[in-house]
Amino acid sequence: MQLFPLNINYSFILHAHSHIAMLGWVYLIIYVLIVRFFIPKVKSSKPFYNRLFWLTEFSVIGMMIAFPIQGYALFSIVFSTMHILLSYVFCRIIWRDSLKEKTEAQRLLFVAILFMVLSTFGVWCLGPALNMLGKQNPFLSNCNSVFPAFSI
């Protein structure tokens, strides 16, 4: 409920909030925990993990700035895409550098990594779907009715 009118686009703020909450807090906390508990100290102390973390943080900061200003547009999409690509790099190095023993936790981590990568395939399909069918396509109308907070 508003006490007084604001000259801001609330949906832009909502998109910024959801992206920063999930990608800026949850994803990065999981990043740190995976590196801490599944990567041997010899490998995790290499500067690559630190650089990848800060590049990912840079993409989150870019989304934090771009989304409230323009919503889903060029710069927010560039930073979101950058985050997805960096997460692919992270998944690849976790797969390569993780502990060699196949514990139950290790198997669950590999399944989680697989599902994280699979979950991004829908994002890659969103652009072509919008381009071919516009915002009135059935995919988006169904998505908006089920998840109104994520409407585009």
Fold blueprint:
Blueprint: H1 10-38, H2 41-44, H3 47-70, H4 74-97, H5 104-119, H6 121-133, H7 138-146
Helix pairs in contact: 1-3, 3-4, 4-5
Descriptors for this entry?
mainly alpha; single chain; 152 residues
Describe this structure in words.
With 152 residues, the chain is mostly helical. It is 78% helix and 0% strand. The chain has a domain at 10-101. It contains 7 helices and no strands. Helix 1 (10-38) packs antiparallel against helix 3. The chain is globular and about 55 Å long.
Cα radius of gyration in angstroms: 18 Å
Structure classification: mainly alpha
Low-confidence stretches: 144-152
What share of the residues lie within helices? over 70%
Shape summary? globular
Strand content is under 5%
Mean pLDDT rating? 84
Task: Tell me the number of strands.
Answer: 0
**Count of helices?**
7
Q: How are helices and strands ordered from N to C?
A: HHHHHHH
Distance between the termini: 22 Å
Biggest beta sheet summary: none
